[in-house]
Design brief:
This protein has 175 residues and is mainly β. It has helices at 73-77, 101-104, and strands at residues 6-16, 21-26, 40-44, 47-51, 53-59, 62-67, 83-87, 108-111, 116-125, 130-135, 146-150, 157-161, 166-169. A hairpin with a 2-residue loop joins strand 5 and strand 6 (62-67).
Length: 175
């Protein structure tokens, strides 16, 4: 297994019931697609372990999952708060102009006037649009340590070049 290619797609929550079920939180755009990626991996006790989904179902506002070999509440509690990883090659191909967050993290962000705003360290989902979290360079002339730039095509995001690992934005460096 190549662990360099693993990507976080969700997280196991608290146990549910007494038969080994757990709440699960999907980080995918369509939560149910989490169950189409196989196998799942978790990093437990200093090593990667495969977690095979035996069954899953919606329950109230949550989704619950049964992991093979986890048969009671105590076993389930040992997996609480573990992140779920899959091989990035399992993710579907994207259309033109669509990007996975994992591909944007680490990109250099440059304003249209050529000013280096820093590097994407994270993204946030706000409901209306995603937001780039850009960590400024150490010697930023504007004193900014971090900038939040809405990922809105054409308005703020002018060009994304994944091969050059750069994102060109229409953003005032003083903001």
């Amino acid at each position: 297994m190549n662990t360099e290619n693993l990507i976080i797609v969700g997280k196991l929550g608290s146990s549910y019931g007494i038969r080994g079920w757990l709440r699960v939180f999907s980080f995918t755009e369509h939560p149910e697609s989490l169950f189409g990626y196989k196998p799942w991996y978790i990093f437990k006790a200093g090593e990667w372990q495969e977690a095979e989904v035996e069954s899953f179902k919606p329950h109230n506002q949550d989704t619950i999952v049964k992991i093979k070999g986890i048969n009671d509440r105590d076993d389930a509690n040992t997996l609480t708060n573990f992140e779920i990883y899959v091989d990035a090659q399992e993710l579907p191909a994207l259309g033109e102009g669509d990007f996975y967050w994992k591909d944007l993290i680490g990109c250099k962000v440059i304003a249209v006037n050529g000013y280096d705003l820093g590097q994407v360290t994270d993204l946030m989902e706000t409901g209306s649009n995603d937001v780039l979290v850009v960590k400024a360079n150490l010697k930023d002339a504007f004193g900014a340590k971090e900038r939040l730039i809405p990922f809105v095509d054409d308005q703020f995001i002018k060009h994304v070049d994944l091969s050059a690992r750069t994102i060109t934005v229409d953003w005032d460096p003083a903001f």
